[in-house]
Amino acid sequence: MRILLIDDDPRLCDSLSFELKKEGFSVDICNDGEDALPWIRQSVHDLILLDRMMPGIDGLSLLKKIRAEGISTPVILLTALGELSDKVTGLENGADDYMVKPIAFPELLARIHSISRRPRNLEVPGKLTLGDLAFDPVGLTLDCGSFSCTLSKREADLLEIFLKNPGQTLPRNLLLSRVWGPDAEVEDGNLDNYIHFLRRRLKTIQSSLQLKTVRGIGYLLEVTDV
Fold it and tell me: How far is CA 163 from the centre of its chain?
């Protein structure tokens, strides 16, 4: 089970992450709501642990936003606000559960297990389209007009992230974590190689989309005028 922990308290994140990993969970950490959005939109996590009170985008606003976008990943709100009205507001805005800080880890673990036992709707991934591209994540095929090519699984995983976040600069560490896994020992050069492969694919099928390098940060997929 892969968990995304979003909280602006680094010590709490370190503590919960340590305990969760001991229980066999894979854990990614974000300390800011804005930074968490690209991670959430990848839909690679089975559960989100979300702090309600954060600077910038607070947890409740972030929850409303992702639910409005149709993202159904289960969310447990973690907060110091323990009034009944606070709990009702959180649950009515899309939270699956609500825990008041300080968090008792055995209780959190029980609630995670409870959520994991709930049946979830199976979603059949459909084609992703952007500009002149159509990508089939099941068949791993990429089409542009009359041109087509087949991608490797790694190329497909990487391209899917860009297609779901068009025009956004995606940091290198996020891409490495999403495609190779958060604990994988992988060199930065591997990412550069696969970016090169995708650029070659786009050129082969004569797509107008471009994978651009944002120096010192990462990459973005841009739709250009033909």
Answer: 13
C-alpha 59 chain-centroid distance: 16
- Is 72 within the bounds of a domain? yes
Structure token pair of residue 173? 């560490």
Kindly state whether residues 143 and 49 are assigned to the same domain.
no
The bridge status of strand 218-223 relative to strand 170-171 is antiparallel
Amino acid at 29: I
H/E stretch holding 100 reads strand 97-100
- DSSP label of 24: T
Give the pLDDT confidence score for residue 198 in this predicted structure.
94
Give yes or no: residues 146 and 88 share one domain: no
Tell me the pLDDT tens digit for each residue of 7-65. Answer: 989 999 999 999 999 998 989 999 888 888 888 887 778 899 999 888 778 888 999 98
Beta bridge partners of 170: 219
Helix 188-204, helix 172-180: angle, nearest 10: 90
Q: Contact, 69 vs 89, CB < 8 A?
A: no
